[in-house]
Amino acid sequence: MLVLKATNDRELEAAFETVAQERVGALAVKIDPFLFRAQDQIISLAARQGLPAMYPVRQFVDAGGLMSYSPNRLFSWRQAGLYAARILRGEKPADLPVQRSDRIELIINVKTSKALGLSIPISVLARADQVIE
């Protein structure tokens, strides 16, 4: 496993050069403010190198990335809104239970998989929460 960091465009380009030199077979992108901003560049670089990539949120997949496996953000935001409403009604934040999202979604972009020459097994597609054609 190879772990690379990128906090700016130059480091991102260098990271993908390293990925090419090391002949990395797949890519996992973590949640990071810079990487969100560089979403289109990351998707483009991964596609150029023919790299299958897993992204931290579905917006990468909507933009052409291969797949994401992450908490459902809309559900999480709704839960946060419910918490805010409880606080506004007078409940003390310290008395509220800590919650985490238990709705994890798998989103797969079949068009991207075909462009990469990948065949995603039907069993995986059947488990996906959404398949983008």
Short description:
It is built from seven helices and five strands.
β-strand percent reads 5-15%
CATH-scheme architecture of the domain at 24-72 and 103-132: 3-Layer(aba) Sandwich
Give the tally of β-strands.
5
Structural class: alpha/beta
| Elements, N to C (H/E) | HEHHEHEHEHHE
What sort of overall outline do the alpha carbons produce when their principal axes are compared? Answer: globular
Return the CATH topology of the domain at 24-72 and 103-132. Rossmann fold
- Could you report the average pLDDT, rounded to the nearest whole number? 93
| The CATH homologous superfamily of the domain at 24-72 and 103-132 | Response regulator
Give the end-to-end Cα distance, rounded to a whole number of Å: 31 Å
Helix content: 40-55%
The largest pleated sheet is described as:
5 strands, mixed
Radius of gyration: 18 Å
CATH class of the domain at 24-72 and 103-132: Alpha Beta
Q: Count the helices. How many?
A: 7
List the helices and strands and how they pair.
Layout: H1 9-21, E1 27-28, H2 33-37, H3 39-48, E2 53-55, H4 58-62, E3 67-71, H5 73-88, E4 104-109, H6 110-115, H7 122-127, E5 130-132
Parallel strand pairs: 1-2, 2-3, 4-5
Antiparallel strand pairs: 3-4
List keywords for this structure.
14% strand; 5 strands; alpha/beta; globular; single chain; 5-stranded mixed sheet; Rossmann fold; 7 helices; 133 residues
Commentary on this structure:
This protein is α/β, with parallel strands linked by helices. The chain has a domain at 24-72 and 103-132: Rossmann fold (3-Layer(aba) Sandwich), CATH 3.40.50.2300. Helices cover 46% and strands 14% of the residues. It has seven helices and five strands. The chain has helices at residues 9-21, 33-37, 39-48, 58-62, 73-88, 110-115, 122-127; strands at 27-28, 53-55, 67-71, 104-109, 130-132. It has a five-stranded mixed β-sheet with strand order 1-2-3-4-5. Strand 2 (53-55), helix 4 and strand 3 (67-71) form a beta-alpha-beta unit. The mean pLDDT is 93.
